[in-house]
Amino acid sequence: MTYRLTRRSILAAGAALPLVSIITRRADAAEFTYKLATGQAPSHPVNIRAQAAIDRIKEATSGKLQIELFPAAQLGTDTLLISQVRNGGVQFINMAASILATYVPAAGIVNVGFAFDGYNQVWQAMDGPLGKYISAQISNANLMTIGRSWDNGFRQITSSSKPIKAPGDLKGFKIRVPDAPILTSLFTSLGAGPTPLDFSEVYTALQTHLVAGQENPLPIIDTAKLYEVQKYCSMTGHVWDGYWILGNPAAFRELPADVQAIVLREFDQSAIAERADIAALSQSLRQSMSAKGLQFLDVDKAPFRTALAQTNFYPSWKKKFGEDAWSLLEQTSGKLG
Fold first, then answer.
1. Residue of 77, 92, 183, 314 with fewest CB within 10 Å of its CB?
2. For residues 194 and 184, what is the distance between their CA atoms, to the nearest angstrom?
């Protein structure tokens, strides 16, 4: 018996196929489906530029690698994300150096108080020997850096109770800090009362006056709308903080060599763009947040650095980071302490 294939019979046969098989084929269109998790709001430059990199990677690999972005701590807190990227549940995460330092101490050397005068020094260090040193230390912790460091910006102090103009204004000042020992140490040395809290708790802690202030780069203050619960912003620039895109080494090694090269290239391109975004925002956000009621104060950083140098802060952290790392830092920062 012979059968004549008609358009109707072909369509009928297709309709008889299990739906799951069709769905499976579509889901399997990408050879690799990975996740990138961040803690920042969707509007933050980190996520805008990360998504741009993801889109370029998908195009350059002809859809072989598809990365889904999960912003705003959708997949958990920083602590959970570190665990997930180590065990491979999440393939990529974005992590501030100040947070990463809890797991990879060397990463926190960029957070030494008043170490960098500006971005020229920062990128000289991070794209040079200091950045390479930190990346090597990260690789020893079952993690890997995906390209160069991104910019979290210079951290500024905000307050709801009083303006911070001089070191003495920090005496007894209860300030939220991330769970980063070097930042806790910095504010303790300056006489403040640092309170470590996860970023997801910051707005509520300020709103309920659990703490009187916090410190973060301006783009974070803006995207988290902290100006709604703070009155003053002192431009202390006390610490520079960077981001690293971190990857699970085993997941990265599973990718073909050409795909690995594309991933590194595209994330590097977005890192450069994100750096420019943060630098520009740090200028424009003063005007926009001033219009929303946040009062900005320019402060002289020299007295703060002098006050810090009179404590055990610099000698203590030099001992913890070691001579090699400290000398790399001082190549750009100059003599500290």
1. 77
2. 6
